[in-house]
Design a protein that fits this description.
Layout lengths: L11 H9 L2 H8 L12 E3 L7 E6 L10 H9 L2 E5 L20 H16 L4 E7 L1 H12 L4 E5 L13 H10 L4 E3 L16 E3 H18 L9 E6 L7 H13 L5 E6 L15 H16 L2
Parallel strand pairs: 2-3, 2-4, 4-5, 5-8, 8-9
Antiparallel strand pairs: 1-3, 6-7
Helix pairs in contact: 2-4, 5-7, 6-7
Length: 299
Amino acid sequence: MLAVPPSSTYDSTARESALAAAPTLRHLLQLDGPSIGERGRSFFLLPARPSGRAALLLHGLTASPGQMERFASGLAERGYAVLVPRLPRHGRSDRLTRELAELDATELLERTKLALQAARELAPRITVVGFSLGGTLALRLAHDEDLERAVAIAPFLGFAWLPNRIAPLLARAILRLPNAFAWWDPIAREAQMPAHGYPRYSTHAVARAYGLANALLADARESAPRTHDIVAVSNDREAAVNNRAIRRLLAAWVASGASGVRNERLRGLPISHDIVEPERHPEIADRVFPQLLQIVSEP
């Protein structure tokens, strides 16, 4: 079964026609077996009035494609074909699965490159948008691939409470220790929302995700990104990721000769990291989504 946001409408004939002409997209959707929850599955939307543009939306760590449903619908209304892939080891019906402990950088990069290939089957002009870990992956794709635009929302390039120079040491130390699972909300524990995401994170998964960020920072000092329109969106009152590391990456790209990279700073928001999940902080999402849609779709 193909996962589609419950609120969306679409032309089933157009969808079947798109699938028939898109073998990579079919393969991506078929990766979601019976253990994946209904809202944890990869999905795509086709616009009523196609613009020749596609948006690839990448969710955050422990989240799932359900995190991007509202954003996907907004972009489809603006003429984008939208693909939201499930990242490896995410989206399972068993929210207390231990799968996340085995997450590694290689499978994350392989899945995002597969998803990019699938998005190219939907439209020729590609914008990649990611949140948190998805933002890190969006920036990695922007470095390696020629995209129309990349938008990284609160990308995970470091820890808000830790100096940049200490983060690599901490990540290596975490990986030398046994994996542990920690609750995002130690009071609500398994009852916390949203139901399409995991209520706890793996320390090894976080450390390996940081390894991706650290490698990207190293590569940025050596070469400019192939994508020429890159936006990093940050909350000035960020609670989890390191905004200084975001500025450091952009500065390294500029020093390498890049143009068209910029930091869009969101001011006046509460202290928070998760600014895109309507089911966790609807009041923040209501304020942020119009700005994000404008940043992604501006000419």
